[in-house]
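Components:
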Amino acid sequence: MTNVSRRALLATASAVPLGAALAACGGGDDGGSPAAKPASQSDVDKAMTTPTELTFWTWVPDIQQEVDLFQKKYPAIKVKVVNAGRGTEQYTKLRTALKAGSGAPDVVQIEFQYIPTFTITDDLLDLRPYGAEALKDKFVDWTWGQVTGRDGEVWAIPQDTGPMGMLYRQDIFDKHGIAVPKTWDEFAAAARKLRTADPDVYLTCLSANEAGAWHGLLWQAGAKPYATSGTDITIKVNDEVAKKLAGYWGGLAREGVIGTEANFTDAWFGALNRGKYATWLTAAWGPVFLAGSAKSTSGKWRAAPLPQWDASAPSSGNWGGSTSAVIKTTKNPIVAAQFAQFLNSDPESAKLFATKQFFFPATKAVLADPGYVGDAPAFYGGQKVNQVFADISATVNASFGWPPFLDRAVTDWTETVGKSLAGKTDTVVALDQWQQRLTTFAKSQGFTVQAS
Amino acid sequence: MAAVRARRRTAGPLFVAPFMVLFVLLFLGPLAYAAYLSLFQDRLVGGTAFVGLDNYVTAVQDPRLLRGIGRVATFFVIQVPVMLLLALLFALALDSGLLRLARVVRLGIFVPYAVPSVVASLMWGYLYGPDYGPFAQLSRKLGLPAPEFLSDGWMLGSLANIVTWEFVGYNMIILYAALRTIPPDLYEAAAVDGAGPWRIAWSIKLPALRPALLLTLVFSVIGSFQLFNEPNLLQRLAPDVIDSGYTANLYAYSVAFTSQQVNYAAAVSFLLGAVIVVVSYAVLLTANRGRSA
Amino acid sequence: MTARRRSTPLTVAMLAALAYFLLPLFWLAVASTKSTQDLFTTFGLWFSDSPRLFANIRATLTYDDGVFGRWLLNTGMYAVASALGAALLAAAGGYGFAKFRWRGDRAAFNLVLGAIMVPTTALAIPTYLLFAKVGLVNTPWAVILPSLVSPFGLYLMRVYAQDAVPDTVIEAARIDGAGELQIFVRIAMRLLAPGFVTVVLFTLVATWNNYFLPLIMLNDPNLYPITVGLASWSAQAVGGGSGASSDMLALVVTGSLLSVVPLVVAFLLLQRYWRSGLAAGGVKQ
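Structure:
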């Protein structure tokens, strides 16, 4: 690296955008090339001791505690935490700010499934030049796969995850003599049995507005619906695996043995409190959430893995979970990258996420921590819920790609498959409609759509 | 003297200038920019390209947009006559002098106008609740099935109820104010002729209300076709009923912000604007023809 | 009006109508006294066993470092600034259109009236993009500036100025040697006062209740007005995934109550003005 470019890198802490600095180095960052020359330790030291202010968009409550750990270690850096909304709300604001060219933060919370939506527009910073690769082994393998790009880029640092399992009402199962279903066939049989025995109770509710759960179940079943390679995209949301799922769930919905109402509404909360649903197929953040919103049912719930398609090869999928990513146009890439890495890999910070915010950990260390997995909350009758989900986490399928336009995919799912579940129409047909809508959209956006 | 007259000639434009300058900057400017944007297309692969009127061609055939427009047209046809009729009846009742506690009633009916649509949707959303809403609870106690205000079949009506609740008072006040300016000697003459309250209402009050009614009608056309706030806020309660294209404006919003297709959104908005202008003028023309007939 | 026999049936009917209009507000008041759990378990239209209005109010005002108080302040600031500014511009403009003639004045006025028909969404994004270019996004100006242009206010003030400010008065003042600006400020504004207050009030309400514009213009929660703030709390109250909080419902309800009270009070106190101001606008065309 010449002297000119070294000075340019040092200046990134104050003004020069990364693009210009890298260009000066002679390495363009267009996503398809190898990582740019890494920032040297002295560059990092210099940046971390230069007074800098970072803006961090996140909707995690009380994250100031973890942020304070960082600020204590690097007193020159001040992090401004902004809650710009949760999920879609924040992503909308982020994209609008990026399009307008001003107002975007330095570091931002992005859920795993949304990463490709922001890498297609080249908005995220590859963290490899800032030492991210060294963190690989600290994180659960499949989470690292989720944040890694096609050419090995590291787009974000995992924060928390949501491997899917099943929370069930032990008391309702006992009352009607239902055994905990281990396979989906057993689950269907149990659903029918329960409906006949008690018309006020359903075995579960597969919400017609929750594309996240659907994708998680697809993931569990081994489907790989999306694959992007440059301007080529493969969309297979209606392949054999998906059709199996659609036939299964559509069938149960049409038989009337499962509920399909929208989740996270007042009515749905009430239903959980009243015992209308005997199970909740949910992610690892579910147990704490349930304990907070269904206090009247404390002690009656237990956790178990999802029913399986193949009992001999247990698998699971993921639903939700967030990462910290750095926006490419940040004026402080070194500091921002260090912050994102520290926040999620520093042992103390990661532990706080698990114990204060009750996040399900993405780091191997916390997952192995006996204090964490040994936790036996009363809401679950003293069961070691974290251990259950930690075991599940090990069975999550290694890879699952997301589309570069997830908002669109989710909206279209809700208006086709979701609608068919709620309206008790043919879900397999709806699946084909979903496929059709996505293919049309992808083509209109200039992608070359590959046949499966 | 010429200087004074010159000062007078320029005074008009100068008084109007601050308003007009901001109007041009904040209205005509963005509008022109939107028109410009609508002629392009921004793709995830390939960036921005000039496509002429393609966006408009797509929009006119877009089934979701057409459904959205159809829905607000239906909304308009149901909600506006009901709301204006109620506003008229209330205004007449208040003006009749037959009412006790008139001031309290007038204020009470107007108060919902002061409530933000966020809060109105929250309140009504709760009242509509199939599990916790008081209506549902009451009907369950009576052994009847709970009314499904938030279901697909009822939703438009439920939205119409919220909007009516919010705006009847506002329209009532406009009509009432117009009634209050009717010269009292007209009433004296009518009393001499022996006309009763109904006759007075029909022959004196209604004609005097014509301009005000027209005003409220045109505003209602514009408001109902642009319906956005209430369905947007009720969406979280019934996400499977209110989809992203439930009304035309909601569709434009989701195209712009969720799908990030700013150019197509601009075309959709212009199309919606054109529909509103056409309907407004149709309404005005019909009303004026009625007058000359 | 001669005979003033009060009609009891009519009164009863109107009181029933009144009950319909006040019902949701009654629910709001009652619901603000309940905890989140109670909201799900007790009958909607009557109190719970343990009312906790003051605890709820305190929780609402202190949550998230007192951001709710900031939202109230923001709303007040945006609304007052927009209302006063819009009314001033409308008054001057309305006076100009009403009392002066020049080439193109009718066309200009009709252009402004036509503006009322344009859907807000058509303008929202281009305005956002233009504001972003000049760095105004995510500032109070992003909310205040667009609210200063009130076509309806202009229309109202023009109609009012035509009636309330007689040409003879203006002529007399001119003969006395007063300049046009002096005439406007000293004489016309006084006569225009009721119309002015009407425009102030209606713009105040429109800006106070504005949801869409601040929703897209503002990213920083510290700049939110009440409407956007409450909507974001409401979304937080039900969302799943990491960071969900299921205790927010009581805060949303209490916050809603607190947001409605100031405007209702303002309405009650300023009744006289908006009635007479609206009279002019409603009667003429």
